[in-house]
Amino acid sequence: VDLGTNAILAAEIYHANYQDTQTLEDSLHQAQINLVEAGSEAEIVEAAADKGYHSNGTITELREHTTYRTYIPEPELKHDRVWTDKPPEQKAAVYANRRRTRGEHGKKLQRLRSELTERTFAHVCETGGARRTWLTGIENVRKRYLISAAAHNLGLLMRSLFKMGTPRG
């Protein structure tokens, strides 16, 4: 989750048996908790994610139980959606998300997500070497990834405050 400053707000690691759609709400909550603990009064109100996070259930849960507005594009489907076996709230939530995503603001958020968030995580994972690890146990992997994200954020702080320091340096 990224605030748009390239600073990583939440670097969550989950077991491989959890789909992205199952982890979105927890990641958003953790990012908000991290903001509060850092002393910020900013509140996350919009969530832009890639189409891997799209699920009728997830979008409905976020709409009904949180204050987050979603901007999650729908994956290409081989067939038309059938709403006869789903509650009307789910249809309304998915259609509202679709409307927001296709609007100008939604397109702008998706461009910013691609430019800032994806690039940030690419630097941490590829350049920082956090894509693969020899560690065992989810807690050890979490600690290692958190250190990588913190090092990235520290580099951002040094460059913005002191106008010096490069990722290599």
How would you explain this protein's 3D organization?
This protein is mainly alpha-helical and 169 residues long. The chain is built from five helices and two strands; from the N terminus they run H-E-H-E-H-H-H. It has a two-stranded parallel sheet. Helix 2 (56-65) crosses helix 3 (88-102).
Descriptive terms for the model:
single chain, about 170 residues, mainly alpha, two-stranded parallel ribbon, 5 helices, about 5% strand, globular
Shape: globular
Number of discrete helical segments: 5
Mean pLDDT score, rounded? 87
Helix-strand makeup class: mainly alpha
Strand content: under 5%
Order of strands side by side in the largest beta sheet? 1-2
| Percent range of helical residues | 40-55%
Main sheet specs: 2 strands, parallel
Poorly predicted regions are: none
Secondary-structure element series: HEHEHHH
Distance between the termini: 26 Å
Question: How many DSSP E strands?
Answer: 2
Rg from Cα: 18 Å
